[in-house]
Design a protein that fits this description.
The chain is an alpha/beta fold. Helix content is about 55%, strand content about 15%. The protein has 2 domains: about 1-130 and about 165-190, Rossmann fold (3-Layer(aba) Sandwich), CATH 3.40.50.620; about 240-320, Chorismate Mutase Domain, subunit A.
Amino acid sequence: MVGSRNKLSNKRVEATLADFLVQHALIGQSLTIAYSGGLDSTVLLYALKRLASLLDLRLAALHVHHGLSQNADEWSGHCARICTQLGIDLSVINVIVKPKLGEGIEASARKVRLDAVLTQSAGWVCMAHHADDQAETVLHNLLRGSGFRGAGGIPAIRGRVLRPFLTLRKEILLEYATEHQLKWVEDESNEDCYFTRNYLRHEVVPLLKVRFPKAVEQLSVAARRFSDAQILLDDLALLDLKKDHFSFPVQTSVLRNLAEVRARNLMRSLLSGNNVQLPDERRLNEFVRQVRTASNDRHPSIQTPTYRLWVVSGELHFEKKA
């Protein structure tokens, strides 16, 4: 029974990967695998290698050495050995993680890794996030008070980044790795429940699954629906803005002429469209209220560690900080 289940997971992993690549017209493309050396990215690396000749893929791998663990050197060495065995070129990028004000080490490390991967690679980048990651992300964002954008979780495609495993449970990846006798490393920080995502992974999600066995799958389905809703809200914002992209400056009369709820939606889409984090809901809503009601001699503004918004001469301006 276990053997047949492993064979089924073998087919499911590679079929899901192949279907994703075909669906998005990626046959014959160059793909860079974000390879941490952990279970998930190891399965992605190995499965793509098995599909490479069939789909005419040109593969490379990139490992980000962040130095946060005393085992970081060992992990990069492991990645180099595996890539040599598979005949895949590997680049190792050294980075320094320095959290910004109000930012945790976990979130900062994710951003630094992603920036390094995108900066040091060309073409498409494949990452191994799976359905369990999606469920944890949705829960985390909802508990932080996120709207549809956050509840939409991890996108399958954003820019050059591909995440073909989002419909697969982690247990399927583990069965695949076991069937093929793959070797991977374990990041000890993944067990530390001080970090919110680890707490959700080890304490909250297992408890939910006792009462709701399909909790992970259902949260992933909900994420897709939230994401669809956010697309519609962004489309509405563009109609209200009367532009085909989210750019500044914006006439304050645009916000004044909208119903308040649509003005707030437009402001959220404007900021997200410029790839910055929204201020908290209370602060954002108050700023929109001020923009809509301020007399000509008032100049509402918002300052954050990464950008500023301000009104002058009837126009709303935006600037990212260096």
